[in-house]
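Whiteboard transcription, Tuesday session. T.W. wrote the structure tokens on the left side:
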């Protein structure tokens, strides 16, 4: 096994299920036999504030924080937060982003306008961009709130963790009543 560490960044706004997604990712990596460290950094962590979660796994991981410019995968739940986090990615890194715009309070109060052309800006810097309509796919799976799991499915295909470990982690972390919808959402994401 190589000593390479895989660095995953999950970014979005409070209330999008980012922390659950990072828990599932960490659990799947642990089940796969990796050493895992994770940390969460909250801006204003109530709904609408930035949330960034760092997950690092490998043979041996010492720090839970992804050094700037060393992220392998940026897993964005909202477009403006995804753009903000781009400096954390290494050149040639992968972006899996939810095609969703949530206006921050400054925009809602009319102090700023929400920037246009964000997906194009990401694509200009990172050719490996998968834009996912998480809300629509989650609705198709049976619950719009499973958008985080759709995105997790898409990201899972880009990580060296076998599908069975992802499914085990979902079964462990997702409440029983929501499991079927989340498994459907996860598989839809994996098929992208």
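and on the right, the sequence the group agreed on:
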């Amino acid at each position: 096994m190589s000593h390479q560490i895989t660095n995953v960044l999950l970014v979005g706004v409070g209330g999008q299920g980012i922390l659950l997604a990072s828990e599932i990712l960490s659990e799947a990596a642990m089940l796969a036999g990796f050493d895992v460290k994770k940390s969460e950094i909250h801006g204003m962590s109530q709904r609408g504030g930035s949330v960034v979660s760092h997950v690092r796994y490998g043979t041996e991981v010492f720090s839970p924080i992804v050094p700037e410019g060393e992220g392998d995968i940026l897993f964005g739940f909202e477009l403006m937060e995804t753009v903000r986090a781009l400096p954390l990615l290494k050149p040639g890194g992968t972006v899996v982003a939810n095609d969703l715009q949530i206006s921050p309070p400054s925009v809602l109060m009319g102090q700023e306008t929400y920037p246009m052309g964000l997906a194009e800006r990401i694509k200009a810097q990172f050719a490996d961009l998968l834009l996912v309509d998480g809300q629509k796919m989650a609705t198709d799976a049976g619950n719009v709130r499973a958008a985080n799991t759709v995105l997790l499915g898409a990201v899972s295909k880009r990580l060296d963790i076998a599908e069975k470990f992802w499914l085990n982690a979902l079964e462990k972390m997702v409440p029983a009543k929501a499991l079927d919808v989340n498994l459907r959402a996860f598989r839809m994401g994996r098929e992208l």
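Someone added at the bottom: The chain has eight helices and six strands.
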